[in-house]
Design goal:
Helix 5 packs antiparallel against helix 6. The chain has three domains: about 100 residues, no CATH class; about 70 residues, no CATH class; about 80 residues, Beta Barrel (Elongation Factor Tu (Ef-tu), domain 3). It has about 280 residues and is of the alpha+beta class. A hairpin with a 2-residue loop joins strand 5 and strand 6. The radius of gyration is 29 Å and the shape is elongated.
């Protein structure tokens, strides 16, 4: 059974009939309540598809997204959510482009800029480098590779194991690397309306996002099921008693009563949705 705007209007009008103050329009108070209620717990869940952009870490989060329940690339494993600060730490020192030499030795590929030994400083094992130009190498292909090891001179080894043309044919071939991690993402963060993928996508990936959403800024369709009716009623009453019905509540007693009932109703709903209760600082009457 669904709740309608008319249901809430009727219930509110019945409750305020004895106040002696007319209320002609309560749509604004109803929308504020619906949106506030959706932020008080993980009540409204939905999903949306997001498409990544090759070489771009960010994508716009789904409209109304409050928090992400899960995200995964189509046909792949779920992505791990990390904090935005952790994301920033991961991309630190990974913004430079260098030209390195390709040297196939003993089953590994060594990356070292001629005449320098510290161009890969700041990278760590498991970070990615993206080869954007293979020169004339017969062993390298454009793409993204995880670093397998780093030696004391900060030379990075990718750990490739094929030698299509022979080591002597490819020693010293110049290759351009972009040290921003670009590969299939396995982590994401959400911040200020955007999703941040790590590693940065190296191609277009379809990502499905399950998330908890903000109620739409409309009272035409109420997205909550019938069990939320009492909480919505009390929430609308709180907002009316803070505004249009102030003259009918000179001592604020009705407001405090409905505030407490609103919070109690939210806590009951949250307990039923396996979320933590809301803690309220009550005001003195």
């Amino acid at each position: 059974m669904s709740i309608t705007k008319a249901d809430i209007h009727t219930a509110v009008l019945n409750r305020i009939r004895a106040c002696g103050v007319a209320v002609n329009d309560m749509d604004g108070e109803l929308v504020e309540t619906l949106q506030d209620l959706s932020q008080q717990g993980r009540f409204l869940e939905t999903s949306s598809d997001v498409t990544t952009v090759d070489g771009t870490a960010t994508a716009t989060a789904p409209t109304g997204c409050l928090s992400v329940k899960s995200a995964w690339i189509s046909g792949g494993n779920p992505l791990d959510e990390i904090s935005y600060n952790d994301y920033l730490q991961k991309i630190k020192n990974q913004t430079k482009s260098v030209t390195a030499t390709y040297d196939y030795t003993g089953g590994t590929v060594e990356l070292m800029l001629s005449g320098s030994t510290n161009d890969f400083e700041g990278l760590a094992v498991g970070d990615y480098v993206r080869i954007t130009n293979t020169g004339t190498s017969s062993n390298m292909t454009i793409g993204s590779y995880a670093i397998a090891s780093i030696d004391s001179t900060n030379s990075a080894y990718l750990g490739l194991s094929t030698d299509a043309g022979g080591a002597s044919d490819d020693t010293g071939v110049s290759v351009t690397f972009l040290s921003v991690s670009q590969a299939e993402p396995d982590k994401f963060a959400i911040w200020d309306g955007s999703l941040y993928f790590y590693p940065t996508p190296d191609k277009v990936y379809p990502v499905t996002v399950d998330f908890y959403k903000l109620h739409a800024a409309s009272s035409t369709t109420i997205e909550f099921p019938d069990e939320f009716k009492a909480a919505i009623l009390y929430g609308v009453m709180v907002r009316l008693l803070e505004g249009q019905l102030v003259p009918a509540d000179p001592n604020g007693n009705r407001l405090i009563y409905h505030e407490n009932k609103y919070i109690q109703a939210i806590n009951v709903l949250r307990s039923g949705h396996e979320t933590q209760p809301v803690f309220v600082q009550y005001r003195d009457i």
